[in-house]
Write a structure and sequence with these properties.
Elements: H1 2-6, H2 27-35, E1 39-45, H3 54-58, E2 67-74, H4 77-87, H5 92-96, H6 100-109, E3 114-117, H7 124-140, H8 145-153
Parallel strand pairs: 1-2, 2-3
Helix pairs in contact: 7-8
Protein name: CFA46 protein
InterPro entries: CFAP46
Organism: Nesospiza acunhae
């Protein structure tokens, strides 16, 4: 919340979404958010693809979304239990499609221009630092996505 408030004035006119633990978005809300945005940020627990339906995502066409930032792969005891229960009902292939590289490929196939994602499990503090660096470089300094990723890699 602090990071969003800090960079609030640098955002474009519209900033829509779900913040905090207000509620879990429905599939229709995910679709509406992804198809109406030029940039999409997911900052949440576990795998992004564990929150959306695979069949629904692969059928989407979202070329207006030029950038997707997935700061996911954060694990807590509660989120691990939720994902473990969910994974019991999925095939090994389905679970494999939720990994970062596969998720990036699927989003690319739907028309997303650039995807920034974490590659391994992390914690909320590290993702908050990544988000701060992303916003600072993209919004304050006006760097390109590629330049910003180079800063993150250092």
């Amino acid at each position: 919340q602090e990071i969003l408030e800090k960079y609030h004035d640098l955002f474009t006119v519209q900033w829509k979404g779900v913040i905090g633990n207000m509620c879990a978005p429905s599939q229709a809300e995910w679709e509406q958010l992804l198809t109406s945005c030029s940039a999409f940020l997911f900052y949440g627990m576990e795998r992004f693809m564990s929150h959306v339906l695979l069949n629904w995502l692969v059928a989407m066409n979202i070329p207006k979304c030029r950038l997707v930032i997935l700061l996911d792969l954060v694990r807590s005891q509660q989120s691990y239990q939720r994902i473990a229960n969910s994974d019991l009902h999925k095939s090994c292939l389905r679970i494999a499609l939720e990994r970062p590289t596969e998720t990036a490929m699927l989003l690319s196939l739907t028309g997303v221009g650039s995807i920034v994602t974490t590659q391994w499990y992390t914690n909320l503090e590290e993702n908050a630092e990544r988000l701060e660096t992303l916003f600072e470089n993209l919004l304050s300094f006006g760097r390109t996505t590629g330049q910003t990723i180079h800063v993150l890699q250092k």
